[in-house]
Protein 1
Amino acid sequence: MTLIDRAERRQRAIAGLPLPKTPGVSEFSRVTHSRWAGVALTLFLVYGIALALFYFDMRESLTTQIREVTQEMGQPNELTNSQYFEAFFGCAKYAAYTALAWGALFFLIDRLRPTFISMKLLAFGWGASVSVLISLELNTWMGTLVNVQGPGDAGTADRTAIFVAPFVEEMSKASIVFLLAMAMRYKLATAMQLIPLAGLSAIGFAFSENILYYARGMLYATKLYGVDPESLLHEYVMLRGVYTSFGHPLFTCMLGIGLYMGVRQANKVARVLWPLAGFMLGVTGHMMFNGLATAGIETKQLSMIGIMCVLMIGMWVFRQFVNERAAIGWRLDDYVRAGWLNERDPLVFMSMLRRGKLLLASFLRGWKVWRATANFINDIVELAYLRQYMTKGLIDQAGVAREHELIVDIAARRPIALSEVEGLKIKPENWTVANAKARVLRALPWRHGASDAKLAAKTAPVGYRQGQYSPNLVGNLVGVGSHGPATPPAAAYQAQQGRQISTWAPPTPPVSRQR
């Protein structure tokens, strides 16, 4: 890849486009030395500190409450550290079941253009640590402001739950989604990305909150009421972990929908109003849920209302999935008509099942084939969305250089990657368990040495170098049929590249080798 000047770097930063890869730098070194890796590591350290503060703050609060109540009952009793430790981590196991179930659902939704694993972990960690800690402190402080009758006011808890907690909790959960959407706006293009990130932040919050409620109920049952703690814990788990577990994910997903509607708008005012509308819709739903629960409505009725809302959102997400899948095919077809992609590429890579077949078959053929196939799929999907952004006016001419880079990478990886499912056998003929173990050992990070840059240099087509031509399909697709590629006008090309060109022809799309 060629180095870029300061003006192009600034244009890419404004559009949110990634910078080109530095020649000779491995993928591992590029990721570990990136700014994103430093930010993610710093946030994970912050999450660890927030979790420790949550643990000790919760212990101090429960110890004080149990001491005060037992003294009023005339039977002073203290909560020991070992009792609290056992209750906390014992209840964490039950809270993890709910988090894993919802996390698996959001992971399956985020498959069309998957977000990074680090982004998912950042969203979940924020909700489980920073968000719950902020909410505990603000809810306690603002609860004192809505106390109208002094100490012992029975309505303070209800007013806090209805009028304070929804705003505080939804704001704290939504913060990380807003930050990710601003920092990675180019990567977050679909509802199937933003909704899972919002949902992961919500289930992280619910995970820590469930530990708090489970442990408090279990300790209260043991220290104050003298009832069986296991039966009470089972009742809490069924109530919060099963019947009403939809609450936090449902409300925060409203924000994800608002962000999705906002990032696809060219109007700046609409980009602000749509996320705000989604946030207020989530807050309203949270207030209604807490209000109905405070009014004493039965849990089964709340569950039915929540299930209906989840089903409606699920149907809307499925419709968006169908639309996005079709859009990938349409945008890739533009490159087929221009001669840059094979005719079957849109049909293959718009299908999740065909992509899965390619990944599984490449995995059984070794590390290099799997790596090339996975990167090939990522590049071709990113190319489709980049084209979608450019046709909608969300990215200006800065996207042309990125378009060129993706086409070069796709052409370089095609000879190694699997890109066709017709006649492809998932398991190769010479595949055995022993060969599979050997391939796994060779795939370990410290065993393989070929970087993506070296791989691209070895497999790049002869006579087609970076910087030779940047396809501007907006102008070149006029009058282009399916019989051949469009030749860029010499004047437009010289004006764009700033240098003369004698002869040029796009590379012939190579035939993918099946293994």
Protein 2
Amino acid sequence: MKQHVEYEKRKYVIIASAVLIVAVFIARLSVLQLMTEEYIDKADSNAFLHSLQYPARGAIYDRSGELVVFDEPSYDITFIPNEITQLDTLDFCTALNISKDQFLRRMDDIKDRKKNLGYSRYTQQVFMTQLSQEETGVFQEKLFKFPGFSIQRRSVRKYNFSSAAHLLGNVAEVSPKELEDDDYYVRGDLIGKQGIEKSYEKYLRGVKGVEILLRDAHGRIQGHYLDGELDTPAVPGKNLTLSIDMKLQMLGERLMQGKIGAIVAIEPKTGEVLCMVSAPSFDPKLLNGRMRGQNHLELSKDNRKPLLNRAIMGTYPPGSTFKTAQALTFLEEEVIDPETTLYPCYHGFVFGGLRVGCHGHGSPLSLIPALATSCNGYFCWGLYRMLGNDKYQNPQEALTAWKNHMVDQGFGYKLGTDLPGEQRGFIPNSDYYTSALGTRWNGLSIISIAIGQGEILATPLQIANLGATIANRGYFYTPHVVREIEDTPLDSIYVTPRQTNIERRHYDDVVQGMRMAVLGGTCRSLNGILPGVEVCGKTGTAQNRGKDHSAFMGFAPMNDPEIAIAVYVENGGFGATFGVPIGGIMMDMYLHGELSPSNEALAERISNQTIYYGDEVR
């Protein structure tokens, strides 16, 4: 009986063991067939080849319909690692005109799973990108010798102009971080890196397609799977029309040769940027194709910083162009009215031992002639009165009100333009001065901000936007360089006006001051550059450790404004030296479509002038 029980127990142990072994085999087979991507990839790649079809990237046109950027065919060399057999490395390298060391380094990079996320021996990898048709021709003839390799048609950006590099931007191979952030891309894909190419990437790139090709046991293509029923065609990227006038852009770059600074022109009625010049610049073709990395390195070593878009990234003291914003603030706060005279200008603002210098002119002045002559004394007294105004409990409260007006006019924060990298500039608040000067500061402590100096910083885009706001008598549209996206409306931020909290009547007074500056003040040379056009302007001479910066802000015509412009030339001296003539020439080109003979001669003289400062020619 005892022996019978032991046999019964053994039977159950044997049955349980058999069941366990079968369960383990089933589980393992399930994992291999259903969960292990390696085997799925291997099985799939044996039967099918998923061939990505890359869409044409959207073209870019200027405001007149001139083609600026477009696609040209290029080719990638791709391969499936598991299918490479008996590769003649020397012959392969000769066909692509590369060295064996280059070949080995590239293969190591591709197999590095930290650099190449999702690497698999059974999926297509990119070996070499952006080959021309000529470069691909030799390899095509020998392709049959290199099993596992194939040629994939792509495209590369081409430029019709050697201008507008900063705003157009460029494309380059996607980075590991960008691969992580967006699953649209695979290693070797191109992505917008700067400018319009970056900020409008999702419109320009289009949608990839896929062809599913059937292969036999030897890996040979037998045609489309299910006669292409499951193929998806690529969808081309959307075309963009810029607000930029390329004739105006090229003229601006010509005028800024040998100089450092920026020009920004805006159409006041729409906020469309008509030109955006940053100097020095470079040919956009330099950052295109396989030489991009080397050229970028060379440009980054240049101490003039040609890669910096000074129009939106350069922050400068706006100098006397800022007096227009001060005037509007003082009028709104009832510190002054148009007839107010603020003490005689003794060649500047003088209070005790403090002095802010000014050039000689008649005195005392009311607001409009003070703007026309750019009287430092007038605006220093204006700020002093505002910060000591009985309307406010203390200078800190008054400065808060002052800053709010400046922010409302587009200073101190990013405007929100459609280009990456915009800087905010700087408008100080009371906490800033309390931290820097203690609690007992007053208007005299910070008087330099009255004339756009001291801690005040603005971008050329912000200064041009101030001109557009004054031209519109109190509102502006967020400046933008894309006028139209194919079949897609612009973001509402670019078509919605932004109203300031300053009454229109105060703008009329400032416009009169800017007009008087042209008729008989600091901008009077504009009368010869733009005869018959009612131009309004304001010069700026921004103090600097070296030679002063030359600035100008203006618009035309006065009562039906078509263009507002800001010019900023580092170390250019008085605003009337470079800022005014450059601004006038640019307005002449935009308003009339060509330069008068005298303005063409003036443009040639200016373009041939190089600014010297420090111990170097920059």
Protein 3
Amino acid sequence: MQNIQKWLKYPELDPELKQELGKLDENQLQDAFYTDLTFGTGGIRGIMGVGTNRMNIYTLRLANYGYGKYILKRHPSGASVVIAYDSRNKSWQFAMESAKVLASLGIKSYVFKDITPTPVLSFAVHYLQASGGIVITASHNPPKYNGYKIYDEDGCQLVPELADQVISEIAQAPDAFDIKVEDFTALLARGKVQNVPVEVNNEYLKKVKEISVNPKLDKNNFRVVFTPLHGTAAVLGKKLLQQLGYNPIFVTEQMVPDPLFSTVSSPNPENPGAFELAIKYAKANNADICVATDPDADRVGIAVLDKGEYRLLNGNQTGAILIYYLVNNRPIKLPAVVFNTIVTSELGAKIAKSKGLEVISTLTGFKYIGSQAKLLEGTDKQFFFGYEESYGYVVSDFVRDKDSLQALLLCCEAANYYKSQGKTLVQVLDEIYLQFGYFHDDLVNISLEGREGAEKIERILDHFHHTPYEKIGKFRIVCKEDYLTSQKKEIGSITPITLPVSNVIKYYLEDGSWFVLRPSGTEPKMKVYFSVVSHNRNLVENKFKEIKEAVFEIIKKVG
């Protein structure tokens, strides 16, 4: 109530926010002010609006003040930050606000003139030798959301120990209403804010094209449909495909920025609905593949033609196919490393290990893969590939984040390569299953918004942390990894987990299947991951259904 009163009485409150504040009922006020927006796996993400639990210029001022103080401690002189933003409502305003706060602390900002893919920001930080980076985006969240992601000097999102330093600085910041900023135009005139040089995009595309394994493949008999889902990949995605020699078909309606994402129910390539228009275009043009990137262009999803229909592949399947293509077509200089996460299917890892590659699993979030890639510098180990089940891939680590444009190139090239051998990517996937086992990997999102939802998620996870289970349904549990207590419990032994502390629980079953529970770091959701394996396709489907039912029976009772 003190917070609400303070906002009500602030004489210079943004007029739009002031008007909204006057219209909120008691429950809406509670949700807007009951807590502060906090850093999750992808920075800060929240509903736009008035209040301490909302994305607005005041919560953003606090975040930028803390980040700016963190930057100055690491780079006491000549500090600079690159700022990018997506096509969402207020993204440009929030980018300007970030530059204004940093300027008040003496930090120079390079701001992109147009909406820009997240991987280009990661590249630009390193290319411009900046001290850090910011992306204003809520990725594939609904239109009412926006967000704020922060990067280190290597173009990698901040890992928890670094984000904790920012959070500590935020805790010591003055009141948000006391952080004074200058006019953006005046800062531009004084050189405190500059536009990112145009050459950055060209240099980035040049590096992307270098990942091609078979650049001379004939493109004339291969058709690709591309959609950026109203997001930031429209310009560079189009340019990349044309420079590679394809004659792409663009989903015209979705090539334009639209903060409401009005042609899709969700701008998320993980959701089949995001492909509806693309598949219409594909059927009309007999295309071989549809590729969709999410609004900030770090994730990519594909639908491939198989037996006259377009089949969507999930992130684990696409990752396995890309690894299979790379290990069989690109020279491997050992020792080399493939990075995945603890919720990624074992299928890609089995393919990599069959060729002698090392596989390192990190916590969920590409920042962990980026930070591990940095550790390879100065060693004899080579970065080979990094990916996670949530449709994020990087082939070359000149970008220290997931990169949909690298994936766009490789997905098209792999599909074209196998088409030249008379195979679809679905047939290639079947080939992989026959060699390495049948995997059914799935993710179930449980959406629970607001204070009540947050409490329910906490209650469910607390139950699994503290309740011992020997079986799930008829399947025996052989290992429980609790990343909150950093303990791996197997029958007869307890060993420490060396990864950072995280609110994640992973159960392994005796046949090699597993499931994981964790809260989303960016959305009001609880996520339940399943990976079920068998030597038989029918058995794997039935087993998945049984395990899923057993897990959700517990969740229903507890929740």
Protein 4
Amino acid sequence: MAFVKRYILLIVALMMVVSCSVTKFVPEGESLLNSVKIISLHDANMALKAESYIRQHPNSKFFGIAKVPLHIYSSAGSDTTKWNNRLLKKIGEPPVIYSSELAEQTRYNIEQMLRNDGYLHATVDLEERVVGERRIDAIYYLHERRQYRVKKIALKSDDRNIVDIIRADSSRSLLRRGMPFSVDNLEAERRRLTEMLKEKGYYRFQKDYISFTADTTHHSTDVNLTMNVALARSSDGKRTHPHKCYRINSISYVSGAGMRPDSTTLANCDTMHYDKYKVYYKDPLFVRPRLLTDNTYIENGTVYTQSNVDRTYNAFSQLSAMRYSAMRMVEHPDEPLLDCYIMLEPNKRRTVSLEIEGTNTAGDLGAAVSATFLDKNLFRGSELLSLRLFGAYEAISGLSGYTRDSYIEYGAELSLRLFGGIFSSMLPMQKKLLKSSTQLSLKFNSQERPEFDRKNLSATFSYMWSKSPRSTHKFDILDVSYIYVPWISETFKAEYLDSISNRNSILKYNYENMLITKMGHSYNYNSSYNKAKNMQRMVFALRTNIECSGNLLNGISMLFNGQKNSDNQYTFMNIAYAQYVKGDIDFTTYINFDERNQLVFHAALGIAYPYGNSTILPFEKRYFAGGANSLRGWTVRGLGPGSYNSVDSDIDFINQSGDLKMDCNIELRSRLFWKLHSALFIDAGNIWTIREYREQPGGQFDIKSFHKDIAFSYGLGLRFEFDLFVFRLDAGMKAVNPARRGKERYPFLHPDLSRDFALHFAIGYPF
């Protein structure tokens, strides 16, 4: 009953906000821009394209439906001395006052867009429609008329070398006979040719040297197109000459002396020679010279290429020892030669950071703290050393028969990343093909629970490389984990591990000492460098991973007739080792409607199979469903596998795991006001087991009936986007619960908040 009252009060409050006049703060004689519409009678795609040329947009809507920020602003009073009025105006959005000047500029811009697309006689009409008290709809009507097309293409220039290069590259041209006469295509071809010529050594070439002449005939939509390439101009602009192909004459590095390689700056520096390079430094050189040359993709005596300049910039930007870098080209006065100066500034070498967080799990309070030390240039080779110490404490209530009433976790992680990598040093040309690094890490984790103590010691040796900033590869050459369980509570052991009536083989397997030795490869691709800031219409991200464990040890054990334990498992140093194969794929696409609204699709599939020395997958490698980054109608590890229904919430988290996972999510994100964003989401998926286990009835995957086990949830999320992190609050409701029967299977039709609601706090986006 109390919930119903709060619900009614919330509805009343929202109605009061919405009922406020949105023209309250619109000045006399002005009008509120109610909406903007673009109508094309011939091509709906043109109307969509024209949206990007709108100069004035109406007030924003939550999820494209209601102008809640405007209503919040309008609910404020006129007295700005009152804090509540100032707050409402700060978090709300002021009314957008209709501007006839901006509307006319929009009309003109759309008209130019149509003409640039070959509709040379297109016109756009603007209607200012009054729709209420001081409200106006701006409606743009597009009249495209006939589209002109390219009939002939000619090339004209007095620079014979440039003409030969362009003609040799004609197969890649963006211009074709019969194509629409589009100014955008002409501009794209100018950019393409400029980039191509810069790649062939024409350092001074600019797109302004390329122009087009278009001839049309009377009563025809045919266009005869001529590309004109002008001669290069002298520095004083009085003379012209053929364009020059430049070569790199010398490469020098300047450290800690600013960004300008003038004679005074260089004269105040100490100098040294390394191989074919010269190094100027004002303070002691903060890195080894080999690091500089290994990350330089241009070479003495070679033709200037823009791509190698860009790769050099990118390589230096990834070095942790560098604060920033710049590349300066100095021309020789009489010859087409370039002296390249790479200006360097060192980064702060050592940093320490501290993180503290609080937790509340079903009323049990806890806290966690971690401290991280970074050394960004350990051996003067931009090596990144990281040492992280962490600890956590949480009170645990509701357990009977146990002597402990808390959960303690602590540990340390030490990692070292070496730029260049071992294979780069073995293969001298490797650095010209890709960017690589090697990482070594050691990690220790200790868990002390009322039921058991568990220690995990792991070591990793990995190699990472990339051919572009968008994609990265990681190869785990060796990843070894030793799991040690020194103590198990007698109560826990008697009730779950040794009890004949309640024996759980999955649980027992995961509370024994275990060795995991795996190798694996992962691949990441992101079509956008920065999806949070990117305003492309659509971007996507792809992650894949495959790993296997125990094969080498199993082969050695079989070859030398190795020792087996009582469970018929081969052992290494009296420790059973896990053997399995696992693969994952994760895909996310982001569709940006505008600056405030974004639609996100996410799909993930994972499958792992234990074999050989293992019949059960190690708990650390099993999948789980539910939680802030999965199906948000369930708590963490609260769903599955399949139609399995948990019977012991205190300890059943082991059983609520599987060997196969499918996850699908759709999320509509909308910026509200201030730093507050919101999301509407629908989640679907579940986990399953490959084999049939007695402890997990209904959990095995069946190709014929797995669709009946797919769970659904829906909900609303709030996100606070700060500069350094995103704080997320997601409220999820179960829609279809495969673990239930009858009415309880469809909570969407028969909701029960105490049973079907889950609230999640998290940092960062779920995908």
